[in-house]
Amino acid sequence: MLDQILCVDDDPITLMLCKKVIIKASFSNEIITAQNGEEALHYFNTLKYTNTEDQLKKHPQLIFLDLNMPVMGGWEFLDHFSKEAFSEFKNIKIIVLSSTIDPEDLEKSKTYPMVIDFLSKPITLTMLEYLKNKI
């Protein structure tokens, strides 16, 4: 079981479903949510600049990331998150969760070393079982 997961999606129903499935699967102790990439980056900046060393160690081990969101989408988040400014979080694994599996998006996701998989929404118990063996 992971200590903490971050779900980034603009759809409240998707976030609620994500939480319910993760809890049911006993996949993570804590689930944090953000409604877009900018909110997620703000969360990591808050961890970096306002928390103690102990709290910095307690960050999400996994991010479920939607691609199409207002304000800042998944690709833009990945572009920012893969820069040196967020290097202390480089061990966080990211699963892209998208409602469309576009082959171009799948190929693009492979260019980001922290992205370990590209899966279709919605998140399911079977998907989490599969991920347990991958993380």
Automatic annotation (TrEMBL):
Response regulatory domain: residues covered: 4-135
4-aspartylphosphate modified-residue sites: D66
InterPro entries with a match to the protein in the record: CheY-like_superfamily, Sig_transdc_resp-reg_receiver, TCS_response_regulator
The entry's keywords: Phosphoprotein
SUPFAM superfamilies hit by this protein: CheY-like
Domain of life from the UniProt record: Bacteria
UniProt protein name: Response regulator
Organism the protein comes from: Flavobacterium zhoui
